[in-house]
Protein 1
Amino acid sequence: MKPLDLPWRDHAKLPMEQQALQVLPYPHPALRRPCKPLRRVDAELLTVIEQMFEAMYVTRGVGLAANQVGLPLRLFVANLEGEAGKGEELVFINPVISRPKGNEEAEEGCLSLPGLYAQVRRPAKVHLSAFNLNGGEVEADVEGLLARVAQHEMDHLDGVLFIDRLSEGAALDIRDGVAELESNYAQRIERGEIPSEEQIAQQQAAFEERYC
Ligand code: ZN
């Protein structure tokens, strides 16, 4: 992997209005846009990553990918306890998954598809390579919940959602819930409950220019 630039002392403000990050619901187009590799990590990004953990804990999520909060970057955060002050806060930058082994079905949900859960079949074990926040390389064989979370979040970074990976039966079971999210979406944007697509496009451009 190409090493990251780490201009730690760069506190230059991001060219955007800093606001609390909000998890974007399906079918926001940001969720379908593949993320780009980071080439640097700076002090402002550390603040953004803290905000990602906060946004994740609001709904006791265990993983959150950057494009779920409108950031076009290949990074995800995880805490298998889903609660601040408990468990370990993990950050994976430019993650790569390889060496899939076995397969396993387990229930998944997603902060971008609130209230929907379904069985998803995935490899049981994978190898995960990434950078951590210190620019160090992380190499790990993972299984169990972390393997599940890592694969779910990696899918997000490629614009893929767990509802894309369902058996016909499982897809049928949550079809109404998916349709409801789709039909509420426009109203919620109109009411200002969700950042508009233009707002997110501006944020994406600012982050890409600075980090990719
Ligand atoms: Zn998700």
Protein 2
Amino acid sequence: MATGKYPYLAVMTFNELGLSEAILRAVTEHGYTTPTPIQMQAIPAVLAGGDLLAGAQTGTGKTAGFTLPILHRLSTSVNAPNGTTAQRPIRTLILTPTRELAAQVEESVRTYGKYVKLTSTVIFGGVGINPQIKLLKHGVDILVATPGRLLDHMQQGTVNLNHVEILVLDEADRMLDMGFIRDIKRILAVLPKKRQNLLFSATFSDEIKALADGLLNSPAMIEVARRNSTVEIIAQKIHPVDRDRKHPLLAHLIKTNQWSQVLVFTRTKHGANKLVDQLAKDDITGLAIHGNKSQSARTKALAEFKSGSLQVLVATDIAARGIDIDQLPHVVNYDLPNIPEDYVHRIGRTGRAGATGEAVSLVCVDEHGMLKDIERLIKRALPQEVIAGFEPDPNARAQPVQLRSGNGNGGRGGRPQTQGRSVAAKSATSPAAKPQGYARPRTGNSTAKPAAPHRSGGRGR
Ligand code: AMP
């Protein structure tokens, strides 16, 4: 028998993976019945205790892929907490590129670890450091952190990483892309030499390969379905439209289709704010999340959106990284991303873990080059549909577009601001784990060399 969602893999249940009863109970309660392909491969590999190099992007179920076996190992090993009041050392460190992803990973740790006696906490910048110091002092088994704030704690001597048994680098490509490599190396330098290392990355650039070579010891290598096959379950459509008609078209689509939960991407923070104001005039409630928003505003917007009380969430690319909403029905590219890989990340917010979704892109004459780059990357032409009343002017001439504005994460690093490919994408020609699906075709109109990643001197740590 084959599973509906993953017909190419024999059916396997969570019970067959060797996880403890306490963990299985939490998984069942959470409503999972079948492990995803990355889980089928990663869980036994991590349980075996060796290092792991995994090619997986968000939306594949990778978080449970590493969280479940880590919880199993920590709760069943000889070092498992024995009920004494002695301070608990940090035994697992999970590093993520963004605050949102860190928060979500820690939430998963809590969900799946509901019935085991382990504690966890999350630390990231943009919020007060003192409550974090208090929690760390109390002791936690699993620490999820963004690199910048963790370094702050290391410098202040408020975190002790001497007992880390398992290290996870989640979305390692994104961390490098955002300029975190030096921070990561400084963190690695203080960890015990003997430990288990798990590296997850959606892409395999030379930089990732070098990091993996220095970090991993005879790793198990796994990869899940090609990036493109994730895209295939998502209905994608282009609506050609004039530049200054995008906002009325979006309002029209939301109203006539009665979309109740829409994630909208803009290229710039300014564009996100402006769109929220414009939608408000049409009685459509939206909030923006980007790097200039306080962490509490970002968290609040995300919580409202997830709960269904906020109709439209407008996000820039980096701020949206890690947004995980089950079965998000609609993603709109209000602007196309100038980095083609970001298109795949964006639409990966819908149709997650086998659910179907719809992604529409509003494309004006300025963005035809970007559209070509995206179609080349995903190896297919996207269907186009002109909406009546919004026909684009056939004589319109392209103008230069404003590209991404600065560091949208609020972390320490930034990404290149030139039109062109990301640093990671530039060198993604020699896969570490031979993940064939990750080699990318050359893009056509991107001859500009990316600038060195901008570092923002500790802003938002
Ligand atoms: P991730 O790739 O870890 O961000 O997970 C993507 C989404 O898939 C999340 O919404 C998870 O809750 C969901 N998910 C993870 N594992 C499973 C599973 N075995 N069955 C169904 N959904 C899952």
